[in-house]
DUF7693 domain-containing protein (Pseudomonas alkylphenolica), 99 residues
Amino acid sequence: MPTLFPREVYQQLRDAAMGVRRLQKLDRPEANERVWVDIEGWQLLLDFEGSHLHHCERCHHPDGRQGSLDTWQRYGTDPVSLLSTWEMAQIERLLSQPG
């Protein structure tokens, strides 16, 4: 099955930042300031440094396709690095809200 490209995953994050798609934290415990989120069926494992979004570790598409930091490095970037400063701040704000 084909891998997810960084731009495909970025688009989900961008849409969540813009309020076009719903982003919610999943109750899946992870270590080292990593958080699982769901964006309308797309599940992403996001890594933080303190309260700042650092990168996306991996993503699972509803159709079974997957992508990970290891595979995205071949393309020279990860989805989070494609976010604008404003988009990143919006995602961080959404994830800092309770609930």
User: Anything to note?
Assistant: The chain has a mean pLDDT of 91. Residues 6-96 form one domain. The chain is about 30% helix and 30% strand. The radius of gyration is 12 Å.
